[in-house]
Write a structure and sequence with these properties.
Bound molecules: magnesium ion
Oligomer: single chain
Shape: globular
Order of helices and strands: HHEEEEEHHEEEEEEEEEEH
CATH superfamily: Creatinase/methionine aminopeptidase superfamily
Largest sheet: 5 strands, antiparallel
Number of helices: 5
Length: 274
């Protein structure tokens, strides 16, 4: 790849639309995640919603991925393939969704609880979600890639969790994966410098136990080496007026689940369309 592609204000508004279509898709899926439901069923709902609203599923066919959603339950980290196995009470399921609309990608993810989950798993979910915001706060003009990675790693490792090394966040735009790579670990002040108009997907993948992973023979599914749970959250963020501005939102998921939070407020422009 040939370096970081800076987006104009107009391009960022187009990207906000793509990101919001993903956000709305996750909101619709949120209402359907429950014991007995298969990930393939959820995948079909997502594909239909995206196509009905003028989008193209962003993952379907990308590097030959076979579906609209990456569905990664429990010990699966990311890139799980939807299947006919019903979700069961106590599962967690990371759902990652990509959309291509007006030539630009949105890419964002949420980890859902299926019914009542174990307290230690709930904690992993809470910490990973918070680490995403800790990382986003560092995505501002003048900071560097390592500042985001450090913030996420430092926050999660304080809780004894493992940060996946092999998979990372990324620049986002007319390609799903643009420069720079955005690792969820790093050293402060290191790596590429952030400037106005950058758009990235920040996506901590955090394991309850070891950070080490395996890949299934399907060539896609990544899972933890110790088979302990893994959690994944992802947002699309632009640098606007030097500061991080969210293009995606968990608002629709929160509405579906009845979650009340102000975690995103500091990353919204006053005149935000969200
Ligand atoms: Mg993603
Ligand atoms: Mg991504």
């Amino acid at each position: 790849m040939s370096g970081i592609i800076i987006k104009s204000a107009e391009q960022i508004e187009i990207m906000r639309e793509s990101a919001l279509m993903v956000s709305k898709t996750l909101g619709i899926i949120a209402k359907e995640v429950k014991p007995g439901v298969t990930t393939l069923f959820l995948d079909k709902i997502a594909e239909e919603y995206i196509r009905d609203n003028g989008g193209i599923p962003g993952f379907l066919g990308l590097y030959d991925f076979p579906n609209t959603l990456c569905m990664s339950p429990n010990a699966q980290v990311v890139h799980g393939i939807p299947n006919d196995t019903p979700l069961v009470e106590g599962d967690i399921i990371s759902i990652d969704c990509g959309v291509l609309k007006n030539g630009y990608y949105g890419d964002h993810a949420y980890t859902f609880e299926v019914g009542e989950v174990a307290a230690e798993t709930k904690k992993l979910i809470e910490v990973t979600k918070q680490s995403l915001y800790e990382g986003i706060r560092q995505f501002k003009a003048g900071n560097r890639v390592g500042d985001v990675g450090f913030a996420i790693q430092n926050y999660c490792e304080k809780h004894g969790y493992g940060i996946v090394r092999e998979l990372v966040g990324h620049g986002l735009g007319i390609e799903m994966h643009e420069e720079p790579e955005m690792p969820n670990y790093g050293r402060r002040g290191r790596g590429k410098k952030f400037i106005e108009g950058m758009v990235v997907a920040i996506e901590p993948m955090v394991n309850m136990g070891t950070h080490q992973i395996n890949q299934l023979k399907d060539g896609w599914t990544i899972l933890t080496k110790d088979n302990k749970p893994s959690v994944h959250f992802e947002h699309d963020v632009a640098i606007v007026n030097g500061k991080p501005e969210l293009l995606s939102t968990f608002k629709y998921v929160d509405e579906a689940l009845g979650t009340i939070t102000n975690a995103e407020d500091e990353f919204r422009a006053v005149a935000s369309k969200i």
